[in-house]
Description:
Layout: H1 3-9, H2 16-24, H3 29-43, E1 52-56, H4 62-69, E2 73-78, H5 81-94, E3 101-105, H6 111-117, E4 120-126, H7 135-143, E5 146-157, H8 162-175, H9 178-203, H10 207-210, H11 219-228, H12 237-245, E6 249-255, E7 262-269
Parallel strand pairs: 1-2, 1-4, 2-3, 4-5
Antiparallel strand pairs: 5-7, 6-7
Helix pairs in contact: 2-5, 2-11, 3-4, 8-9, 9-11
Bound molecules: S-adenosylmethionine.
Amino acid sequence: MNDFAEEVSRGGRFEFGRNWRAFLATVDEERIAEAGLSLRKMLGVGDLEGRSFLDVGSGSGLFSLAARRLGARVHSFDYDPQSVACARELKSKYLPGDQSWTVEQGSALDEKYLESLGEYDITYSWGVLHHTGDMWKALGNVCRTVKKDGKLFIAIYNDKGMRSRLWRRIKQAYCSGTAGRLAVCGIFLPYFFLRTCLACLAAGRNVFADYGRERGMSVFHDWSDWLGGYPYEYANAEEIVNFIEQRGYTLTRIKTTEYLGNNQFVFTRKVGK
Ligand SMILES: C[S@@+](CC[C@H](N)C(=O)[O-])C[C@H]1O[C@@H](n2cnc3c(N)ncnc32)[C@H](O)[C@@H]1O
């Protein structure tokens, strides 16, 4: 049994790749365009022509595909073998035989592996480093993958104190086995569904459909990802900014949340460092 399978079997890790596999069927041109738009907006660019792009924890591969479509040379990796298979599947469907997009299995915690990749114009790691099991080590590692004057685009779960601690317990219960998963889904999926139906009524429009407009994601897959996403760590925005700035970066753009979701950051690596 490899490390990944062993972690899953002892209840220490959610199988994101399984969820991404189900999500793949929903990927279409509209979602790819939304994913591309989210990259362009946060990076403040029109395209990524001539840039190198490292996708750390590439999940479905949607953002690697979007970056490639924007003109970047892309390297994607993920720890979960099924996520890796998903990115490869997207590649063979949308860009078969493309020489400028590589996909492989690797871990953000593996310093030797990251070192072997060299430095990129853009390192992108959205919603990943808090799921590695050692967020601060993973953050330190990705800081070393960016060229001078290059960009580091990360998203990390916000720290909401007791609520974050409680959610860690819930996610742990989900991953503990079939009974835990059924209990967590049995309680929270109907609750999320009802809450979204009420939001539709209040807004007078289909909020379920609106969801796809956020980074090209899908509401049902995001719910599963949220309920099961373990290991789970979090930090407040200030802690992240301090940590990354101490490693030779300046903050370029930030988008914070008041809730339990992700704070998003784009940092620029200082030229002199
Ligand atoms: C919530 S998903 C985000 C995927 C993608 N970045 C996105 O924005 O859609 C988290 C991903 O991080 C991956 N992951 C978890 N631990 C990792 C590690 N140590 N190294 C690389 N990827 C990891 C998971 O397998 C999963 O595909």
